[in-house]
Amino acid sequence: MADAVLVRARATADGRAVVRLLMAHEMETGLRQDASGQRVPAWYITEVVVTLAGQPVLQAQWGTAVSKNPSLQFTLRDVQPGDRLQVAWLDNRGRRGTGEGVVA
After folding, report:
1. Which residue from 4, 5, 35, 61 has the least number of CB within 10 angstroms?
2. Given a cut of 80, is residue 89 above it in pLDDT?
3. What is the pLDDT of residue 72?
4. Phi, psi at residue 91, to the nearest 5°?
5. What is the mean pLDDT of the chain?
6. Three-state secondary structure of 7-28
7. Domain limits of the chain?
8. CA-CA distances (angstroms) from residue 63 to 9, 44, 53?
9. Cα(83)–Cα(19) distance, integer angstroms
């Protein structure tokens, strides 16, 4: 699932960058029931990995407590405008999503 992550990153004057991610995913807990009373199967992101210039800078393990279309914000050090960020996620059904962005 290409472009399943929207990436925005802005460098600050002190060599840091504020990174914002928005991931397109339904994030079902497996506890909700549909209109007919049937349980909706669990479907959620289990792992998020962010790399900067090919080097991993963040790895997160997620579960069912994360909301639909999750967002994530964090700050990186030693970042320059033009540096490239790649984001990849994996869900409990084995599906993958990716996205990338350039530090502005």
Report:
1. 35
2. yes
3. 97
4. -110, 175
5. 95
6. EEEEECCCCCEEEEEEECCCCE
7. 5-31+39-102
8. 25, 7, 27
9. 12
74 neighbors 60 (Cβ within 8 angstroms): no
- Pair 19, 73: CB distance under 8 Å: yes
- Give the residue-averaged pLDDT of 8-36: 96
Domain 5-31+39-102 has CATH 2.60.40.1940: no
Q: Which residues of 39-60 are buried (b: 16+ CB within 10 A; e: fewer)?
A: eeebbbbbebebbbeeeebbee
The pLDDT of residue 61 is above 70: yes
Is the distance from CB of 19 to CB of 9 less than 8 angstroms? yes
* Token code pair at residue 44: 């959620």
The pTM score is 0.91
Let me know the angle formed at the C-alpha of 80 by 74 and 102, rounded to the nearest 5 degrees: 70
